[in-house]
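G., the chain you wanted modeled:
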Amino acid sequence: MFNYIFYKTRIHLVISLLRSLLLPKVITIIRNLAAYFFKSKTAGNVPSILTLQLTYKCNYTCIMCQKSSLDNNVYNSQMDDMDYEQLEQLLKTSAKHISVLRITGGEPLMYPDFEKLIDLLNEINLKYTILTNGYLLNENIVKKMLKNCLQISISIDSVDHDVYSYMRKGGDLDTVIHNIQTINSLKKSKHTPFLNIATTCFTFNIDGLYRIVEFCHKFKILSMSVSEGGYYNTPFIKEEHFIKNNRKQCELAVNKAQRVADDLNIIIRWSSQVLYFSKEENQLISNRNKISGCVNFFFSGLLTPDFTFRICPLSSPVLDMNGRSLKEIWNCNEMKKCREIILQNNFPNSCRYCTDYNNNFDKDQEYSYIEYQKETKYWKIETTPNNQFASNHDSYKDAKCTCLKS
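Predicted structure as tokens:
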């Protein structure tokens, strides 16, 4: 069913973004895309889309998050937040070329200078999206976000209070609902920020997926993004909780959620191809279309709290910025080497966790994404700590895979 309101709102969102695209941003987009299509190792001035991982801290302790992992990692350590003065300098220098920011964490609202950052983005008129658990949103923050925030994605895995509290320890669903109502009341006739619900599915919450769809309809939320839960060696997630091991149950739940979404005009974006039960035959290695390279290496980048530059959350670090500008990083020798490697379809093992895996690997590769996720065990990619993608690519590409037992 055609969702008129959804697409009308998305058109307004696109128009809002286009209005902010002055000539330098347009030129940067064209140069980045041209580098991808013409297989050039040199792209535009900066990435057109930049993800800011402001902090690893979070006010929740979710059972499926690395913060709850039994292994030591940055999410359960005492890592510093992103230095605001350095961030401010970077954004003021590069804002005329960056099209949109993606703001994430941890929980980004735990960033001590979050409101200062929003004020800065309003000052330099830079559009952004944000992924949050929604607990810390308040009227003052939302008012500031109305100007340039394009989308707020709020993580809700269940609308059953007991299940929500079990999965997102430290959270309170009623508070999140109140904050969603605050956003809707302040938006009034505005189409942005666009609201989206982000849901992570395991066998113990997927049966209630259709109720989240109903929740979206009730609170004027037009879309959901649904992903498959992964493994971070937490004490709460066991082998039997993974969707891949409970195909029939999950297929029934997914199909029911989709039927309800069609009836209520809610758009569901299935972020994991494992959830595409009706299209599974198209995900096998023999049926996929080959795309050379990965557009992220030519179009987007990610900054961690310590100002390490990565291509995406799955990639190994490329380089520590160490006082360099974003322009210097984007076309440095290490980045050119990365693009050269990717253009040869010589991808690292961690790309197997990417939903675009099927499109980026040639027919001689061992697994497609769907086949990889349907293996009898999940795998942990062990890499040299803090290795650089380009200079240590051989060790990264051939990283040891260790089976994680439940």
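The radius of gyration is 21 Å.

Shout if anything looks off.
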